Amino acid sequence: MPYFLLGTVVGIVVCVVTERTQKEPEAKNMKRIQNKMELLSIKKELHDDLIQYLMEEFYGLYEYLSNGENIEEFTLPFCQAMMVLETEKELAELTRNQIELEFMEEVCLKSIIVLRIGIRQSDDIQLCYAIIKV
Description:
By secondary structure, the protein is an alpha+beta fold. The chain has one domain. It contains 3 helices and 6 strands, in the order E-E-H-H-E-H-E-E-E. It has helices spanning 36-41, 48-65, 88-95; strands at residues 4-6, 31-33, 82-85, 101-108, 113-121, 124-133. The chain has a 6-stranded antiparallel sheet, sandwiched between helices.
């Protein structure tokens, strides 16, 4: 089963929209990660390379967004939560509106290839990642 996940970039809003008519994600099929504990709780459910990548992304967000709190106390705002999508339909919905699509690029990790997608949302870019090859 392919996984789809949200990515992060310093200074860019990070969330995924499952329906193009919505501005905030619905967590029906997605796993939302807002803190380190949530990330560790899904570790057994996801590909090892994906977990490592999510850890790096989370630590990057922590370094940029934290106000000096300990990483165990740090929580991402709802719209910046890292989202792991679980269906191909969600990817299709996300990329359907070509006008809002800012970019798509492949990122090669150790044993998987991830599609990195930027979607325009108001004044921000939402970054999304989808495993496209294991």
